[in-house]
Specification:
heterodimer, A: 8-stranded parallel β-barrel, 4-stranded antiparallel beta sheet, 13 helices, 20% strand, B: 452 residues, alpha/beta, 5-stranded parallel beta sheet, 36% helix, 18% strand, binds flavin-adenine dinucleotide, binds flavin mononucleotide, binds iron/sulfur cluster
Chain lengths: 425, 452
């Protein structure tokens, strides 16, 4: 079995799988169960200054598919609603009982130097391996000037990171909010403030659904609803892009990244790491399936590593980053066409109607002499858009085959039809 | 057979297969229990929403199956029901009675993809039942009145479907029915465990909700009314009389007490409540290879007959009963004997049994007796060897091969007289085909009246 141990921000971990700061890490009871289940580390539920916050009921909304599988949830919960001293005491106990497992203390405070420094020092003294600064919570806390209210202003991100770096000598992770226009601005700010790593993403601002019987956004709190933080597999594409942007941009590429957002399977985790994450955190998948999902994360990743011949996670970490490029760098002379394997085709006709109604009229439907229907790609019309390939319910029935062309690669800036090119000459 | 059906079939077999049970009513609860919302959700999500879907082509009424299933999956079952009923106003009965395994479900692409069709029949029932349970106003509106009136003979699926569509197109309809109740074989023929809770009558009531349809009961064509009068009094006539009489074995003693048509047996059973009041023999022989034979055999067994033997003159592959129906007989403990034909009825004051001769195919492929005989004990014999039209009622219309001849517009050789259902040769003799015939005939009549 492949070695899954890894290092992030100088912290050694048994494996790259940590539980993100959230209800699953809110107390010793959960954390013990998580470690027993195999998680390499936890980021403790965000701690704040006493008196503890008060939460509402209810707290979660859901985005289901039609089979009632959860694609994503949103929540209007705040940070830990237990006294700071209780949390710190339990962290101490967990550190002692599980010395090989990582515990990171997540924290948040009002935008005051003293508040951040005091809280950071108190948490550090409990023995945590590092601190994570929660600058992302998009509901409740931001209205009190915390969470995303800080995370959305690069100067404040830098300031807060520096305060904490100055106050403690353990690694500091700055956790970023996706609710901004450009993730690079906050990543750069964290870097300037001295962060050892960035964690991303926190939840995406959202209204997840509306109770159309009562005309209230969900979750409903006594007849009213509010926006909340969206997470789970539905946000993975958003998170992956942000991780990749940080990893491939010269100014931020030296930041280490704790990848978060929708990680549900081992393959999700590999993708996050391939695009720049040194390790990953999981919240919603554990909330939906329990801590036992770590079994697939560990087992699936190591099986895959064995198959590929990787012996350490560093060997594939960031491996996909060089292939992430700007649109302007893509080869305009590259061409693919859909190919339908008639032996696998079950004749559902979905590729035909999708292409016919909404794309390029490149899939014909004809009656076969022996009965049944034949679906064929008209090469001249097919632009290789992938729509049919994604729609086909049968795996490997439609493949996208590169077209052999003698044309040399050509980017848009070089393209004869680009008016800007002409202007530049 | 789909897995769900197999499961249910074997379940009912286990419960009712034992000899001599006296809990007869229990044997006539739903063959396929209705879907819960959760089941309907799960199953509807298996549908791939095919384009120009093969299941639609396979349904004689061409219900837009992918659309109705999608509506179920988005939480719009009443909309789904309207999609079904707009093509097939008896979608509720068809959902219960269609041999889906050789119709829509046989064509489903999921058979190729994963060996199990989407359970279209069960989903159809879920949607239609949902709408009917809500007691809403009738879902379809009538077109402005045309002032034309149409006479429909027979209140079976063909007649009622024709009446409904004609009423929808703005015509007024009078239905003449020989029996005291409407529904035709929906009421008198379909197996009791397919049509529980008086569904046939509830459906007729629902269908009549469109308005503009009157039914006159106990009015038989050829007895109480005649075609010439109808033609004179109405702008068009539709004949949907089904198949009124049954074939005989041509043996001595066929009128002996205890020897009966399977159809009569089923009809009596359908009209008996509680079912345990229905008398049944201890040793029952059913002769035939169609669904009627299976229905009679299974119901005799469920009524408590100790031994039910179904005898068919050819092999299982030649039976017109579907594989699902054949399995249903076996899981219900019916003994099936192939390759034998009845040669004599044995009676000695009372019915004793029947003598059979084994059969085979000769070199030219013709079915012949082998000369070897055997006897089966019986105190009840049910004949299910086919039905035929009662010709004496239908003077003036050309009949070929035992069926009324119609052109492609369902018009008989008597001008202005249309026909459909079992009494014509359209497709298989099935409820769903009769509904389609009635619907298409109404559309043809509408066109006929516009040019007339
Ligand atoms: C035992 C049995 C089981 C069956 N099981 C199934 C099944 O599971 N699934 C399936 O799809 N199909 C089944 N069928 C076939 C199905 O019932 C018929 O195809 C369908 O009912 C035919 O409809 P119809 O309207 O043509 O005739 P019918 O249903 O026979 O209706 C004819 C109507 O006309 C009336 N009538 C007859 N003569 C006159 C007259 N002279 N004057 C006035 N009224 C008259 C009758 O009383 C009756 O109401 C079964 C048939 C039988 C016999
Ligand atoms: C109920 C709930 C509470 C959360 N609370 C916190 C928190 O206190 N601090 C924090 O940094 N992130 C919090 N998060 C965000 C998660 O740590 C994580 O960043 C986010 O859910 C995305 O990851 P996922 O898609 O794996 O869930 C919370 C998430 C949920 C669902
Ligand atoms: S979507 Fe796939 S299975 Fe369906 S018709 Fe097209 S190629 Fe065949
Ligand atoms: S009417 Fe019968 S054949 Fe048509 S879709 Fe419904 S169950 Fe299938
Ligand atoms: S063939 Fe099957 S999967 Fe396709 S639309 Fe019909 S029921 Fe759905």
């Amino acid at each position: 079995m492949a070695d899954l141990s890894c290092k992030i921000a100088g912290i050694d971990s048994l494996n790259p799988f940590w539980l993100a700061s959230a209800p699953p890490t809110d107390k010793k009871y959960n954390v013990v169960r998580a470690f027993e289940a195999g998680w390499g580390g936890v980021v403790w539920k965000t701690l704040g200054i006493d008196p503890p916050v008060v939460n509402v009921s209810s707290r979660y909304g859901a985005h289901h598919d039609q089979n009632r599988r959860l694609l994503g949830i949103n929540n209007i919960e705040l940070i830990s609603d237990r006294p700071l001293a209780t949390n710190l005491q339990e962290i101490r106990e967990c550190r002692k009982e599980y010395p090989d497992h990582v515990i990171i203390g997540s924290m948040m405070a009002p935008i005051e130097e003293r508040a951040w420094k005091d809280l950071a020092q108190q948490i550090a003294e409990s023995g945590v391996h590092g601190l994570e600064l929660n600058l992302g919570c998009p509901h409740g806390m931001c209205e009190r000037g915390m969470g995303s209210a800080i995370g959305q202003v690069p100067e404040m991100v830098e300031q807060v990171t520096r305060w904490v770096k100055d106050a403690v000598d353990i690694p500091v992770f700055t956790k970023l909010t996706p609710n901004i226009t450009n993730i690079l601005w906050s990543a750069e700010a964290a870097l300037k403030g001295g962060a050892d790593a960035v964690s991303l993403i926190n939840t995406v601002n959202s209204i997840i659904s509306v109770d159309i019987d009562n005309m209230v956004p969900e979750p409903v709190v006594d007849g009213k609803g509010t926006h909340g933080g969206y997470c789970g597999s539905a946000v993975k594409p958003i998170a992956l892009n942000m991780v990749a942007e940080i990893a491939r941009t010269p100014e931020t590429r030296d930041l280490e990244i704790s990848g978060i957002g929708g990680i549900t399977t081992w393959k999700d985790a590999v993708e996050f790491m391939a695009l720049g994450s040194n390790a990953v955190q999981v919240c919603t998948a554990a909330m939906i399936y329990g801590f036992r999902v770590v079994d697939d994360l560990i087992d699936g990743m190591s099986q895959w590593m064995d198959d590929k011949g990787y012996t350490s996670v560093e060997q594939f970490t960031r491996a996909a980053v060089p292939q992430v490029s700007d649109w302007n760098e893509l080869n305009m002379n590259f061409d693919t066409k859909a190919v339908i394997n008639p032996d696998n085709c079950i004749e559902c006709g979905r590729c035909h109607i999708a292409c016919e109604d909404t794309s390029h009229q490149a899939i014909t439907m004809t009656d076969k002499p022996e009965g049944g229907r034949l679906f064929e790609v008209v090469d001249e019309e097919c632009v290789g858009c992938n729509l049919c390939y994604h729609i086909c319910p049968v795996p490997d029935c439609i493949t996208m085959e590169p077209v052999k062309t003698d044309k040399p690669p050509m980017t848009w800036p070089e393209h004869p039809l680009n008016p800007m090119r002409v202007a530049a000459e | 057979m789909t897995t769900l059906q197999a499961k249910q079939a074997s379940k009912s077999g286990a419960v009712h297969g034992g000899a001599g049970h006296n809990d007869a009513d229990d044997g006539f609860s739903d063959l396929h229990p209705a879907y819960s919302t959760l089941q309907a959700m799960a199953e509807s999500n298996r549908c791939l929403y095919c384009y120009d879907a093969p299941c639609v082509t396979a349904c004689p009424t061409s219900i837009d199956i992918p659309s109705f299933i999608r509506k179920i999956s988005t939480g719009n079952p009443d909309g789904a029901a309207k999609t079904i009923l707009s093509a097939n106003i008896m979608g509720g009965t068809c959902a219960r009675a269609c041999p889906t395994e050789v119709l829509c479900e046989e064509a489903c692409v999921r058979n190729v993809a994963e060996d199990t069709a989407v359970e279209i029949g069960s989903l159809q029932r879920y949607a239609v039942d949902h709408l009917m349970a809500r007691d809403l106003p009738h879902p379809f509106k009538r077109a402005p009145k045309t002032g034309k009136t149409i006479a429909v003979v027979g209140a079976g699926p063909a007649g009622l479907s024709c009446a409904h569509r004609a009423a929808m197109l703005g015509h007024d309809v009078v239905v003449f029915e020989a029996k005291p109740k409407p529904g035709g074989l929906n009421e008198y023929g379909l197996a009791a465990y397919k049509m529980t809770n008086d569904f046939a009558q509830r459906e007729v009531e629902f269908l009549l909700g469109i308005g503009g349809i009157e039914i006159e009961y106990n009015k038989a064509l050829g007895k109480d009314i005649n075609l010439a009068d109808l033609k004179a009094k109405y702008d068009a006539v539709f004949v949907g009389v089904g198949l009124g009489s049954t074939n005989d074995l041509g043996l001595k003693g066929e009128d002996f007490p205890g020897v009966d048509d399977a159809i009569n047996f089923i009809e009596k059973l359908r009209q008996t409540e509680p079912k345990s009041d229905m008398p049944v023999g201890n040793n029952v022989i059913v002769i035939g290879g169609g669904n009627t034979a299976i229905d009679a055999a299974v119901q005799a067994k469920r009524l408590g007959a100790e031994e039910v033997t179904l005898v068919y003159r050819r092999g299982p592959e030649n039976m017109s009963a579907t594989e699902f129906e054949q399995d249903l007989a076996k899981t219900n403990g019916v003994v099936v004997r192939y390759w034998a034909k009845p040669v004599a009825i044995k009676a000695n004051g009372k019915l004793m049994g029947m003598e059979f001769e084994k059969t085979e195919l000769d070199a030219s492929g013709k079915l012949v007796g082998t000369g070897e005989t055997f006897e089966v004990r019986a105190d009840q014999i049910l004949k299910a060897i086919g039905q035929k039209i009662k010709t004496d009622d239908l003077a003036g219309m050309e009949i070929t091969g035992g069926k009324i001849v119609v052109d492609k517009n369902y018009q008989t050789t008597a001008p202005g007289v249309f026909a459909g259902g079992d009494c014509i040769k359209s497709g298989e003799d099935l409820t769903v085909q009769s509904v389609e015939d009635g619907k298409q005939a109404a559309i043809a009549i509408d066109a006929f009246l516009k040019t007339a």
